[in-house]
Here is the input.
Amino acid sequence: RDCRDASAEFLNSQFGPCNAYCAALAWNDGQRAVKPFRESLGADQWFDLKYENFVHDPIAQSRAVCAFLGEDYDDAMMAFHTTPQAQRRGQTRDNAALGHPISDRYVGRYKYELSLEQQEIMAWAAGDMMAELGYDEIAKPKALSDDEVALAIEMDGRYRAATLDAPHGWVVFESYGDWLIDQRAARRRAGLWSSHPDPAPYPIGRPREELLAGMRAERKWKDHFAVKRSSASDKSVL
Here is the structure.
């Protein structure tokens, strides 16, 4: 998906990157991570699905995906939005697309949601990859200084952690995830689980591991803000 549209969605959501640089960086890191597989795996193992192509012709694209997976296509797949769960989640900001049929309404959203400066920053962070994947009308890159990059990364981390317990925040979701991670670490220390193979599966060990693994807030900022972590709650945030 176009980095700028994906980033615009990030910036309007209640989780994930909170500024133009970090949003583009997350997109770029993800594309760089899969590039070796895209270039080395055959058509029987790798299937590229471009968001823009999918929403313009969802039936044909879904048939292609099913053929790749060895599954039968069913027209009921296009009626996902009629289910009670889709209708419920479609009322939320982060899942609005679930509440209606597939359409191209979100293609090009960056043109009216992102400022020119944001587009220029994204071009600097991810412009080469956007061009490589066939996206055009890329703004002239605006380079950030080392201090500006450091500030963007820190503010992104601080903001995501500090807003976890805000209305519709992800505190329960992330708390349970943190609890699972802690339990796995304890099992490894006790010798019940082996350590990760070398090299560890991507993105383990990466500087933005928690972000790349699920748009999670960094643990250090949760600890800094003393965000309470509990593995159970009577509230659903998903």
Q: What stands out?
A: The longest helix spans residues 20-40. The CA atoms of residues 38 and 46 lie 7 Å apart. The chain is about 50% helix and 0% strand.
